[in-house]
Amino acid sequence: MKRVGCQPAVNLKRSKDDEKDPIQVYCRLRPVSANVESPCVKVISDTEIQIYCPPNERGISREGQFSYKKIFTEYETQDMVFQDLGLPLVEQLLLGKSSLLFAYGISGSGKSYTMTGNQEDGGIVSRCFDVVFSSIKDFQARRFTFKPDKLNGYDVNSIEDAMMFQAEDFKNNVKNPSKTFKKREADINTPRVPFNYKVTDIDQDVAYSVFISYVEIYHNYVYDLLEDVSDGEIRRNSKIIREDSNGNMYVHGVNEQEVFNPGEAFELLRKGQLRKRTASTFLNMDSSRSHTVFTIRVVQAPLDVDGVNVIQDKKYTAVSQLSLVDLAGSERADKAKTTGQRLQEAGGINNSLSNLKQCLKILYENQSSSNLRNIAEKIPYRTSRLTHLFKSFFEGSGSIRMLICINPISEYAELLPVLQFGEMSGSVKVKRTTPLRMDIGLTPGRRKIVDMQSVNRIPCVFEEEPITPLDNKIKDNTKETCLTFLNLGPPLPELDVDDILDAEKRQELINVLEQRIKKKDELREVLINQSNEIRAEMVFLECNYANSKQEINSLQILRDQDTNKVKQYQNKAFLLENEMASLKRKLESLDSENKRLKSDLNAKENMLNQVSVDKDLLKQRYNTKIIKKQEQLSREFKDKWKVQENEFEAKLQDKKRKLKHIKNIAESIESLPSHFSRRTIKRTISDESLNKPEHVVNIKPSESKQIEHTQMTLRHLRSRRSKSCDPQERWIEHKPPAPIPLQTVMQPKMKKRKSVTKLTDAKTVTNNGASKYCLMTQGADEQGIPEAKLYKADIIQTMGGGAQIVFNDVETLKQDSPLGCSPVRNRIQAYNNEIRAHAGGSDDLNSRCYAIQGGNTPVSRK
Ligand SMILES: Nc1ncnc2c1ncn2[C@@H]1O[C@H](COP(=O)(O)OP(=O)(O)OP(=O)(O)O)[C@@H](O)[C@H]1O
């Protein structure tokens, strides 16, 4: 016969299975108050979560995305969380597989709430009780059938021994009522709604017992929370962790209490919780200061061949356990605002948690493909009691699930390591344990037959008692059988003691008895036949039952799948609703923002219009101003233009007059005597008389006594006055024989000079070392105004010993009287006469410039 579903966690050999499963990591967000928004947590889907860090002062923002098996949002109830997280572990527990579930997170993130819950709304632990006991209710072993052997195993007792222990326990409880944990008023008054679910897939030919232990790890010491402190003791002794013969870790000497119903289990949980170390911190009013481990053990052993007693062979006993761990919260002293003892506790908590992290990290690294050296690093399980206790789980004695608890209002820096640890743990794999198929050679359904037989027996004894729900057919058969049993043949003859001597009566009794024996044999045969029929029918029903069960199972799987799908859709709907709500809020705020911006825009547009109107007005004003200014300027310009025109006109007239005058002079020069005019004197008179052509006169050496004109060039005539005033220059002043004093302001100054009246010899020019020559003439202009002209020239020594006279300037000195009569006019007249007399009637210039002309014949002047 085969037995399915009994996995020996403790004392049956585990199947060698190299397949591994990852640690299943879940994440739960605790709710926040309605008016608080999570600053950095966002649930993206039912498996993904994102955290975001707003930009810091340097403008750097960060974000991280993490994925887990499932994310429970704040809307998911304890029931929903248990269904996904705890229920599969309870099912495994009843099938003989061990599991570990631990809750990890920052202080105040909801670990204890999820694991143990509160009076009204229990957590995973209390829901586990509900499911375990509702599933094994009909198959529970008599109390004290199993007894812990203190070596992490269980002894199996006979019914008699179990009853004896029961009686002893009863006596002890009567003697020491104080040691019995009394239900508190509050517990009685707050009825809990049990989780209504039954695991149907369990082995029914097995007797089950449930044991509970509850320990805490505080400051790296293990304490038993169910241990009663004896009268003299102040505190409980710490326990040690040991390894059993199968390599499983256990707390040595821990109290394992057998529980028969959820109420008892719940009481033990409460008892432990009251003893658990908690304290109030800034982060949590009721903060756990220790890690607590609540262990539910299911011990199971097969029934014997009769289906009544448990097989009393230890090797057939299977133990599976579910360890539910509520880790103390990791906390930062600055956040939790802890000091003194609380701070020390926090240090111990953080150390053990960091060792847990370290162990999982090394496990991960040992398993990862990047571990090229293929050398597994030693895992420091023993560094902390917490990891030491769960060493066997990490090495594959059961499956592991982890719940990351998140308080959405925590800071990014606090959440990041927690979420990272969760994600990393999800990559760690542990060996998969599969329930053993154990063949002990007994027929399945033994318990059922016994149950039915007991039903059969009942009508025989209590014929009229109602029969409990059974197949009608069986009911009829039973009645028939019972009636047949009552009719065993002809009634016994009524005999007295004396009748024994009567041979006839004796024979009659023998006949009746023989008939009855015969009848009894017949009935026995009928009974055997009917038993066989019933057995055959039972087998048939069993087959039917198995088929139906299979069908139910497949239907259940389908239903579970559908339920899962529905749940997923519900979750999605939740998320979408959340998102919709937040989008709606955003939309509303955007709408109001939009309205505000629109009104701003309108105000600005009005302002703009006002500005443009002002601008137009200003433009108009400026335009009129510009037009006025333009007009004024054009008037001014016209006036100025007129003034300047007049000035230019006057200047032009003046220049014209001057030109005319110069022309007269030129004409007068042309009309000089012929010997004088023979000299080549070229002259160009421009409007600006300063840029004058120069007269160049060549004065030959004395033998020829003739001055030849070679050329006439233009020279710079600037600073004429200064030239004439240069004190270093030696001048030959060629004056008229009787010059009239000019009495003008601009008198020529020639400091070094030789004055001559007549130039008859060229040596006069060459021998004196003179470099300048000035010929002065005196006369009157057309109006008779006296004027003196100074013809100036440079004397340039030539190679031949002669000199060249280059005329480069003409100065006209004129004196005009506003009264129209010049005081010098008469003197001029007299002078001209005198000259004429002096020159014997010949032209003055011709006679005076004999040497320059180079000829002896004076030229008469026209
Ligand atoms: N899902 C939830 N729904 C309602 N209340 C919650 C939930 N999660 C946590 N709380 C509340 O938040 C508070 C802190 O939770 P809890 O004590 O479970 O935190 P913790 O993580 O165990 O903290 P510590 O590590 O300090 O023990 C409790 O008052 C609890 O009732």
From TrEMBL:
Q: Which Pfam families match?
A: Kinesin, MKLP1_Arf_bdg
Name the source's superkingdom: Eukaryota
Record Gene3D superfamilies: Kinesin motor domain, Kinesin-like protein Kif23, Arf6-interacting domain
Q: Which UniProt keywords apply?
A: ATP-binding, Coiled coil, Cytoplasm, Cytoskeleton, Hydrolase, Microtubule, Motor protein, Nucleotide-binding
| Kinesin motor domain residues | 22-428
Give an example GO cellular component term for this record. Answer: nucleus
User: What are the BP-aspect GO terms?
Assistant: microtubule-based movement; mitotic spindle midzone assembly
User: What's a Gene Ontology MF term here?
Assistant: ATP hydrolysis activity
Regions that span the bilayer? none
Q: Which InterPro entries match?
A: Kif23_Arf-bd, Kif23_Arf-bd_sf, Kinesin-like_fam, Kinesin_motor_CS, Kinesin_motor_dom, Kinesin_motor_dom_sf, P-loop_NTPase
What stretch or stretches form a coiled coil here? 510-614, 638-665
Ligand binding (ATP): G105, I106, S107, G108, S109, G110, K111, S112
Instruction: List localization entries.
Output: Cytoplasm, Cytoskeleton
Identify its protein family.
Belongs to the TRAFAC class myosin-kinesin ATPase superfamily. Kinesin family.
Name the chain's protein: Kinesin-like protein
Q: Which species expresses this protein natively? A: Cinara cedri
